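Input chain follows. Return structure tokens only.
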Amino acid sequence: MRKLKSVLITKAVREMCITAAHKLPCDMLCAVKKAAAKESGVSARILKLCLENAAIAEKEMIPLCQDTGVAVVFAEIGHDLFIEGDIAAAIEEGVRRGYQDGYLRKSIVSDPLFERKNTKDNTPPVIHYSFAKGDKLKLTVMLKGGGSENNSKINMFAPSATIEEIEDFALKTVAAAGSKSCPPLIVGIGVGGNFEGCALLAKKALGREIGSVNKDKRYAALEKRLLQKVNALKIGPQGLGGKTTALAVFIEFAPCHMASLPVAVNLGCHSNRHIGRIL
């Protein structure tokens, strides 16, 4: 049984929050560069500005976006790992220090309905736990902005729903978002599970590397087809028209009840800030 001190988790999460806020992931950077080469006119200029923004953010340590988001943390814990201390408290402290030391905007309010007072340190984070073989801790931190999150949708389809109806739901979600989610987008889609499960699948999908494909050939083909249809909407970068409304469509799926077909669409903006570490 391997032991891991919780203070190391705090240190890692702090650094991950700061890095994710200031450095565009390599796969996103490459995808935006490729898209810029294919576009022309104002669409190309917008994408070049996105690249310029990314370069300034990394060099000057200025956040990629003023909305530094909700800290969403995925913690995959190895069965042969013993964590000395409280993992939840360690992650929360890492987020607190990351947002304070990185001078990142604090956006979390303690009560959603009545007081809506800012917690002033961007805590608590949203934490999802899972378990795996081995003695490692795999951490993924996403900084999820309100604009893209607010335009995400979930629908409980009847099991008789066709693939075309699922596609139509995804396309209408992207179309309704328009420029509000800061395209070009990453479109994460969760299929199956249950009401909350499909939303979690869609969130996880946003963490996939651009260029990756679903291991199931049927879903891989659906990802490819949906990306083509999303880009055919011609919403374009920042909603100003063009060939690139989305950089990728990722689908994750899970078994579900025979009477249900849950589907969630979670949109990620052109920064799609996420970072992973293994401790």
